[in-house]
Write a structure and sequence with these properties.
heterodimer; A: about 240 residues; alpha+beta; Ribosomal Protein S5, domain 2; 5-stranded mixed β-sheet; about 30% strand; B: mainly beta; OB fold (Dihydrolipoamide Acetyltransferase, E2P); 2 domains; 5-stranded mixed β-barrel; 4-stranded mixed β-sheet; about 0% helix; elongated
């Protein structure tokens, strides 16, 4: 693919969104029968499936923590998730993303309630179009809540960035590839605490503040969708009419 | 004030601690009570507690629960059991600690002098939870429905057959070895929880 001449035309992006607009977001909780908790998220062309297991006994035993549960995350991209076939299995990038996702989710869990246990989170990227780690976090939080694992808050993730000198919310692949900056953020939406913040590219301090504001606006939208997904699963349709 | 039956997600503010104490599915932080799971709120005005009931949650042992486990060690005083499944939560693994112990005095309604005469390592037992407050979960096999539901011959590993249900006498169909257990009424019926 070649770079389009301009990424933003008349204040509209390549897919017609304004700079502060999210791609269409759809979340479904409890999609897998055999997992203890699960969620499926579509954000534009991103498709992410998350399964949660546990708390269960930790194997191997030497990795048990006698006072807390251990959270284990695996971020994995399907070979067919990107344009060129991705070689299956963990690579440098997905190992790092697994680590930062774990650290983004850890602060909301009451891990001390389950000593010697393990909680497994499997994030499978079925289709990728920029912002998969934040989409994965959004889905993982819903899956953890679906599993009934005690949490302080949900976690919602979104990316912000810059293309053609404009600060943008929720980058798509073209903007990520040819833009000037990409900054994934994960936030505990009730407390407004940031649990993940990475950046690739350059922002001026002003742009950074602008991007952060934009991200928090996006987080609100993501959080609303998460709440809706959990409610749909837990409240039967007949009760909702009242 | 939040009402009973409201749907909440984790982290939703429920009340202040001055009004209500956090019950199940809720926690307190800086004098405020929040929900810790996605589910429906129950406001108990009598005990002044707010709880949240999720559709699914990790199983927790409670007094009176029935479990199935495997005997790990037997001494004259007690039999240690690794708790494998909890009645009503068959589809989900129990979080650790998953060890329980059956004291001789809780083996059977009648007097038992030696627990090694009633259990053997490897037996599959159905038991009731007596106490989860202590370090080790206390279990009981008193009653007709509780006790060993499957066991193998200690000499040739053939599943044993009942000779006398009342005395708990078992006999190996291959090597004719005779053993004794605290039997559940439905020994080797392949039924998990009885009637």
């Amino acid at each position: 693919m070649e770079r389009p001449e301009r990424l933003i035309v008349d204040g509209r992006r390549l897919d017609g969104r304004r700079p502060d607009e999210l791609r269409p977001l759809q979340i479904k909780a409890g999609v897998l029968k055999r997992a203890d908790g699960s969620a499926y998220v579509e954000l534009g062309k991103n498709k992410v499936l998350v399964a949660v297991y546990g708390p269960k006994e930790m194997h191997p035993r030497h990795l048990q923590q006698s006072d807390v549960a251990v959270l284990r995350c695996r971020y994995n991209m399907a070979p067919f998730s990107v344009e060129e076939r991705k070689r299956p299995g963990p690579d440098r990038r997905s190992i790092e993303i697994s680590k930062v996702v774990r650290e983004a989710l850890e602060p909301v869990l009451f891990l001390h309630l389950y000593p010697r246990a393990a909680i497994d989170v499997f994030i499978e990227i079925l289709q990728a179009d920029a912002g998969t780690r934040t989409t994965g976090i959004t889905a993982a939080a819903v899956a953890l809540a679906d599993a009934g694992i005690p949490m302080r808050d949900l976690v919602a993730g979104i990316s912000v960035g810059k293309a053609d000198g404009t600060v943008l919310l929720d980058l798509m692949k073209e903007e990520d590839q040819w833009g000037e900056a990409d900054m994934p953020i994960a936030v505990m939406p009730r407390r407004k605490l940031v649990t993940l913040l990475q950046m690739d590219g350059n922002f001026t301090p002003d742009e950074f503040r602008q991007a952060l504001d934009l991200a928090f606006k996006g987080i609100e939208r993501v959080y609303e969708a998460q709440k809706r997904a959990l409610r749909e699963k837990y409240v039967p349709a007949s009760e909702e009419e009242r | 004030m939040i009402k009973t039956g409201t749907f909440v997600v984790p982290g939703v503010f429920l009340s202040t601690v001055e009004e209500f104490m956090p019950g199940e599915g809720a926690y307190e932080e800086n004098g405020k009570v929040y929900s810790s799971c996605a589910g429906l709120v129950l406001v108990d005005l009598r005990t002044r507690r707010i709880s949240v009931f999720p559709a699914a949650a990790p199983p927790i042992l409670k007094r009176g629960d029935t479990i199935i486990g495997e005997v790990e060690e037997v001494t004259p005083q007690r039999a240690d059991v690794s708790i494998e499944i909890l009645h009503g939560h068959e589809g989900r693994e129990l979080p650790p600690p998953r060890v329980g112990t059956i004291h001789v005095s809780h083996t059977s309604k009648s007097y038992v002098r030696d627990a090694t005469k009633k259990f053997r390592v490897g037996d599959v037992v159905r038991a009731r939870v007596l106490n989860v407050g202590r370090e080790l979960v206390q279990l009981s096999t008193e009653g007709e429905d509780l006790g060993v539901i499957f066991t193998k011959c200690s000499r040739c590993s053939t599943p044993l057959e009942v000779e006398n249900q009342r005395t708990g006498k078992l006999k190996c169909p291959i090597c004719e070895k005779v053993e004794f257990r605290k039997l559940a009424r439905d020994y080797r019926k392949g039924v998990l929880w009885g009637e």
